[in-house]
Protein 1
Amino acid sequence: MIHLLLFAWLAGQAGTSDAMQHLQAGLEARKAHQIDVEIAEFRKATESDPNMADAFVNLGSAYMEKREYGAAIAPLKRALELSPELPVAHQLIGFALLSQGYSAEAIPHLQRVGALDALGIAQIETNQLTEAVSSFTAALAQRPGDPDLLYYLGHASGLLSKDAIDTLLATHPDSARAHQALAENYFVLRQMPQAEKEFLDALRLRPELPGLHLELGQVYANSAQWPKAEAEYRAECKLRPGNAEAAYRLGAALLQQGKAHEALPELKRSNELKPEMPETLYSLGKAASLVGDGATAEKTWLKVIEIEKNTSLAAQSHFGLAGLYRKQGKTAQAQREMQEFQKLQGAISPTRSE
Amino acid sequence: MPRRTTRRDFLNYAALAAAAPIFEVKPLRGIDFLLQNSPTPRKFLIETMPGGVALFDYNNDGLLDIFLMNGGRITEGLHVPENFERGNPRYWNRLYRQNRDGSFQDVTQAAGLANAGNGNYGMGVAVGDYDNDGNSDLYVTSYGKNILYHNNGDGTFTDVTAKAGVAGGGWSVSAGFFDYDNDGKLDLFVTRYMDWDADHNKICGGDWHTYCPPNAFPATTCLLYHNRGDGTFEDVTEKSGLAAKKGRALGVAFADYDGDGFTDIFVSNDGMQQYLFHNNGDGTFTECGLESGVAFTVDGKGMSGMGAVFQDYDNDGRPDVLVTVLPREIYSLYHNEGGGSFNYASLEAGLGAMTSMSSGWGVGLEDFDNDGWKDLFVAQGHVLDNVQDIDASLRYKELPLIALNHKGRFEHADSGVTKPVAARGVAFGDINNDGFVDAVISCLGGPPILLLNRGGGDNHWLSISLQGTRSNRDGYGARVSVNGQTRMATSAGSYLCSNDKRLHFGLGAAEKATVEILWPSGMKQVLNDVRADQFLAVREPERS
């Protein structure tokens, strides 16, 4: 692509006849994939005519092709001195500088030609994280689903997040948010006692902060301290009665403790707040089944199957329905659901939770 | 003059009594056994699996004796054919005879049980009187070959494996005697874990460098031996239909779950679905775990089935199933609904909150407080000795779980054990004959733990010894009901272990009992007005 641009641009250029001859020879060598000859000819062209921008651009391009990025920088810089608007030279020098670690220097060149992906990388390397996220987001709009761009966007976002948290911890170490951030970090590392302590510290400072009880509940749930988890989820539900996740978590915690009668209204409430969430529906079916409300169990599990089709939740719902129908004496339906369960299960390999 | 007890004092005492540990952790006087599992950096999977405990009265003196299975020596250079140096006394299985004063004496060598064979890494033990001579025989399982020891009745045993034809092979784990065809002779069932040997071992976990999960190795079949009655057994694994189902079996428990008069088999499999082999009554079995509802969790997921028990926890007269598993799962309790159907009952029974962070192995449903409800006891400890590095919220060594049964719902209680251990097997029995069920736990790399029931309280009890005449002499397979409670007569269950074959019933406040026995022969026997607080021997009537 760059070579095509070069050819187009060269059409309008002029220089000494000796320089032009070497330039032409260099272009012929490029066509013949003789890269060392190409470099030698372009170098001679620049020596014959030190003001011939196209010779310097081509020399830089040849070095780039040979992956000698450091060697490419000087001729490309000279080209831009001679012709500051030259887009190809900006693009090439931007890449060359970036590859050599001169990210800050590369940025204006990459900005000028709109090379968003390379620009984003340069911005990450110069810790311009907000700008990097913008660059990758814009690049993704042009190339949706590109794996490299998705990776870099995630990477930049993560660094930005870390940067913000580091700043928070450095500037407001005793704030509720700082404790919350530390707690979340410990939670990810599965260091539950430390996570619990930090969440409790955060709650002591700002007991009304949304989400804290929910997160602390998760810490307790992860350590199988279900009564404590239940208490935290209840507190979150009281603070945010419109939060579907809090209601779902509370329902699940109650279910885990065998309190299906109490779980059922919470799961119903969660489903009303945020309808058709498969996890909520599945648990709702489970709670309904445990309290003997076969109609609700059947309805919700059928809904899960309709939404999920081939996932493990759908398989679980078929399994639940099979048990339900078996209890109701509907043998044929039970067998059909069990067959569906087995069919789906075949595609989901068994795991051991270690 | 002593101060008068006030109502407040009484409430305080009551609270203290309620919180008191169930057991006293007692040193086993005269027992110097260490379970040698020999962990190595090569993480041979067998290292983390032993060892069995049997509580049985080998010399018929009325006192329970203790048999302890040992692993063997493993070195990093272990290759096929493996040598576990079982001839070295350090690696012997051990039999300890109980003395009248409660101490124990090592009688291993005199009993002829010393060397279990260098190629055999020890696992579990089963006890049963397979020749109906009134003496309890021993069957020990191994990675390698299994051994049947005939009890000669004079304090010695004879290795009769070759004649009996029950050596098995591969990796055997739990075993149990039962009479599947009701011919009055005990047959033998053996679980096998997987197709494994030292040359095909794997290490998993990447940088964590740890034991592999079971699905890293091929599945295999269990073994069923039919007792011909002449001291020999026939391998009927194929003929019975059991060979059709390969699995990764660890535990086994027996009960007639559908009341058709034939003993069925529950097998706990690791990392997959569980098996329930229905006894068709014609010498064949049909696996019906899925249809009956015991194959998966309530969410239709396979589980890490380890130990199993098949007894009636809610006093409805039907045997229920309980399976111990690894953390992030829940010990699975399946309530027998009748009609051959089970319902997952872990959550309602309170096990969801209690067991999701623990690794369970040996398990029992025994009435420790004699209140008439079977309580739950589980020997616990993770498979991976470095699990704490992998998941900081889990522990390799754990305290055992005891949960008291309050009319079908379990509540956590204090076992009295304060030091976590890597427990594996646990066997139950009334070791000191005081009317309260005790337990012995095996621990990897350590001595066994004796948990002596503190007893106390005003509850009554009844302990029944069965003597079959038309049925097998041990009465295994009998269904015994006492004041509305039911026990299936068996010494099998748990993990790798064999329990006291006497049937223990807590009677609560009742001073009298009605005992109803349905013998495997089909004979029904009823004993009325039986006095509580006694060891009752019941002989099966010769004629109906």
Protein 2
Amino acid sequence: MIAATTIANWQLLSFIALILLSSFASWKLALGLGKDLWWGACRTYTQLMLMGFVLTYVFKTSHPLITLGLFTWMIFWASRIISGRIKHKPFPLQLPIFTTMAITYISITAITVGGFLQNDPWYNPVVFITIGGMVIGNSMNAVAISLERLFSDLREKRFEVEQRLLFGADFKQASAPLLRDAIRAGMIPSINSLMGVGLVFIPGMMTGQILGGEDPVNAARYQILIMLLVSASTAIGCSAITLYMLKKCFNKDQQIKPEV
Amino acid sequence: MSIRIKDLSLEFQNKELFCVSHEFAKQQIHLIKGASGCGKSSLLRLIAGLSPAHSGQIFIDNEPISDQRKHRLQCQYLFQQAIIFPGTVRENLLYPFEFNELPPPTDLEDQVNSIFPEKVSLDQDAKVLSVGQKQRLALLRALLLKPDYLLCDEVTSGLDESSRKITEELIIQFCNNGGTVLFITHVESSFENFDKRIGLEMSEGSIRKSL
């Protein structure tokens, strides 16, 4: 067993040197990223330390409502980030994204923790929050990519979709190729991860477990489970959200809404 | 079938673009002219059921439209730039039948030969056809769906003389077989020798006869 190393405060703060280095590079190359780098670093320190304290409390209390409350809070922020990343919004996106993500990811995580991992109780916060958090984090990028692609394709290929409507298609048939392309675009990073894991990189969770003193083979088992879970939930979440958003782009007469 | 529009209006950025009432008599070619931006294409899109109207109603043979999906199939709208899907000429002609209950045509070869005197094979890649050939292909594809009316948005603008002639002949034939045509054009000579044509002018949000 490898001994876990505790990171002291001075060690943690010394990593600011890396931000100094990258902001120096940004200044030298006139990239204009200095402000973003410092703001990002500040947020990372604050958000993760805060998360550490919150998790300590949630793990201690182990109450289903507190666990689900924290998980919903994480989904709220994910939906906010996704909505912010989509440049051209045909209608307010955050609430529908939040609702679809909450339904999809709470169900998937509960089934995984209680069913596949046989945890008792099913809301065991140590497993539920950590695994669920990884699922949301990975799906967030996929959903943002899928939605951005869907909306831009609907604008660019509007006449193509309308031509299918003229053939007698309903909105789903008329935009099926666009929906497929959007979901595929979102899934590519996740599939690339499945291909490259263990060959190109050691994933974050496995690294964390190994550094935390876990046996590498056992860490690998957990990582396999996580990778497959993330891929499946990304596929399910992406499909559900993209399809729901597609539906919202059409009115009851199956016409593309003017605001799209 | 006649098309009657009553107080059909369209708004853009909270400003009314037009509000028109008119009856398009059946089995005629209605040539719609008007300055750019007066709303000709938007009007055709409303009638075709592609865009929602702000207010007003459309009646087909004095009956309001109850099923937009069925209505769109009955009135084929032709875009200014023909929409051609990846695949061969045959695949493009048969593609619409994947979305409706209509029986696919069995005499495709004869149909294609009649609109392409320059000989175009059914197995030819449709994407490599010329602009005029693509427009003729789109028109034939629309006609195979046996619509009651055709809504043409400047489909002959920019076409060579031969393509324009064949396209107009097909539309005249459609009209002679009982179809109604709404045809947006800027060209005075469109369908000039056809007696069942009605000239219309769209301006300041209204439609009036011009010929």
Protein 3
Amino acid sequence: MEKAYQSYQKKIVPYLDGSLSKDEKSEFEAFVLTHPEFEEQINTKKNEIELLRNMIPQVQLSKESAESLESELRASVFNLLKEEPKSIFDSLRIKWEEFVNR
Amino acid sequence: MKRKDFYQLSLPLTEKLYRFAYTLIPDDLQAEQLVIDSINAYLLKERKSILKREVNIESKKDTQILRRTYFKSILKYLCEIGVRRSVQLTEHMKVLRPKEFAPFYSLDPKVRFVISLRYEAQFSVEEIEEIVQMPRYEVIEKIHNGRFLLLNDLNKGVTV
């Protein structure tokens, strides 16, 4: 019994990491349902993960960077993705897009 | 798929890609360049498959699935190029490192990337395997090592 308990304890972090297999995951969840005190240990680990998240930089794009990335992306997409025209209208549309996005 | 559809689908990804680029190279311009280089590498390699794909741009569900697929695919290139670049810039990185994130930036670039994929973007281990092109055991090892080193650093800070 004690051994089983310890083995489930070891599975808390892999469970939160998403590294348990499907079977192991449902087995673990079933165990937690029958052992409500386990919930506290899971919460402690969840708090640890929250701390970890705060240690990872979450930068935001400045307005200038966002604009510059947008125009670079547009240029890349319209230069590197060359569509094959299926009709004369398609050909005109492609030429027009290329002209607008130069 | 038309290229303007691809453009519209991928535009909202740039901010997220930038965040990942910044976890590898903490410099605005370098991170921006890394995003563009990764998108270009992806477009050059996958051009045919992108244009061939039939997509219903009106369907919200289809669009979301496709956007996530593109996100993961571009991240694959971002990881490959960014890790290499980060190693090349090791000396320069010592100056760039933001002080408040020093413990994070003291980790190996690949560990940083894997940790961000797991805890910031909440990708599953299977998805991370696919993005970083590493076997499952290595991904799990990197997540464990990264978490251990970061929490250890945090505890040191608390006890001092």
